[in-house]
Amino acid sequence: MAEAGPGIFGALPAVREVEAGDAAALDALLREADAPFVVRGLVADWPLVQAGGRSAAEARAYLLAHARDRAFAVSVGVETQGGRLFYDDGMAMNFRMLKAGLPEIFARIEECEGQAGAPTIYLGSVDIHDYFDGLHAANHVDLGEREALASIWIGTPTRIAAHNDVPHNLACVAVGRRRFTLFPREQFANLYLGPIDNTPAGRAVSMVDFHRPDLARHPRFADALAHALVADLSPGDALHIPAMWWHHVEGLDGFNVLVNYWWRDTPRWLGHPQDALNHALLAIRDLPDDERAHWRDMFDHYVFGARDAAAAHLPQDGRGVLAPLTPDTAGRLRAYLLRQLSR
User: Fold this and answer.
1) Would you tell me which CATH number, out of the four given (1.10.390.10, 1.50.10.10, 1.10.1040.10, 2.60.120.650), belongs to the domain 9-263?
2) Would you say the C-alpha torsion 23, 25, 31, 35 has a positive or negative sign?
3) With helix as H, strand as E and coil as C, how does 164-220 read?
């Protein structure tokens, strides 16, 4: 059994715990939440949780009984990294991405179980509906009308660097213990983020080693810690992470399984904010200072200012994309952008 590393965690305040007796109560909590919360035992009745309570081997057998016969993407780390999936000294990834059937992956996990210095084996963000039959039906949370993406995360002891996600997240621990260390959205500058275009899993991550933080190199991390929360979760527990909250995640036992649900409160036809940031890096960041200042003012006027101010002088039927977007106007704007970017 792997234990958490030394350092910061014992001093951090815990995420608040709430009760959700039924789907309606959980729905109300999710609608009102502006900070993380924990629901103990929310999914304790799942067959997967109960199988894992008997043994890791039974949890793996349960998953294999539902797995489809297809290749799974798996991250395999080096033996000396202590479960930290991160960059090496040259800013390349310290793990390899492979593909294999789930029986082969689980056989390798079982072979390494209990061995000191065993390689990290990690399956991240596997779409449950695409890779398993019947698993979601038997093990899921009723989220009402939310159109949530259900994913499963499986692995040996791991440390996943602090990152954030655009959607809201309900993370349900099925097997093994998990520790989440969380930070509000505005703490991004104090987390010393890595590159946007070279990431372990698609999102920029904190460059701080949470087990051995170097405050001489990352002094503002102390400010981030002043706002941090920690959630230590057991099988059956669930954690809600609001959109864009930063979270460092650890799988603490020899075999760990988590199921999570992602959803957004905005329509699917809206663009992705990260794409807008990437385009701004391409088009604006390297302009002369006076031009950058002008475009900052333009963004404030059209994007971040009062919603109706930029078009208040125009007739209602002549505002185009300055009016609240609809599926039709959003589609036209997307098509225009695609034409411009393909030049």
Assistant:
1) 2.60.120.650
2) negative
3) CCCCEEEEEEEECCEEEEEECHHHHHHHCECCCCCCCCCCCCECCCCCCCCCCCCCC
Q: Which own/partner pairs from 185-191 qualify as long-range (CB within 8 Å, at least 24 positions apart)?
A: 185/244, 185/245, 185/246, 187/223, 187/224, 187/227, 187/246, 188/164, 188/246, 189/220, 190/220, 190/221, 190/223, 190/224, 191/162, 191/221, 191/224, 191/246
| Residue ranges matching CATH 2.60.120.650 in the chain | 9-263
Q: How many CA atoms lie within 13 A of 97 on its CB side?
A: 8
* DSSP output for 207-257: ---TTS--TTT-TTHHHHHTT-EEEEE-TT-EEEE-TT-EEEEEE-SSSEE
For the chain, how many residues are written? 343
The pTM (predicted TM-score) of the whole model is 0.94
Q: Which residues face 68 on adjacent strands?
A: none
Candidates 324, 119, 157; CA nearest to 253 is 157
Task: Note whether 194 and 87 are within 8 A (CB).
Answer: yes
Q: How many CB atoms lie within 10 A of CB 91?
A: 10
Q: What span, in angstroms and rounded, lies between the C-alpha atoms of 258 and 238?
A: 9
pLDDT, tens digit only, all 343 positions of the chain = 344 444 566 689 999 999 999 999 999 999 999 999 999 999 999 999 999 999 999 999 999 999 999 999 999 997 667 899 999 999 999 999 999 999 999 999 999 888 888 899 999 999 999 999 999 999 999 999 999 999 999 999 999 999 999 999 999 999 999 999 999 999 999 999 999 999 999 999 999 999 999 999 999 999 999 999 999 999 999 999 999 999 999 999 999 999 999 999 999 999 999 999 999 999 999 999 999 999 999 999 999 999 889 999 999 999 999 999 999 999 999 999 999 999 8
Tell me the torsion sign for CA atoms 182, 188, 193, 195. positive
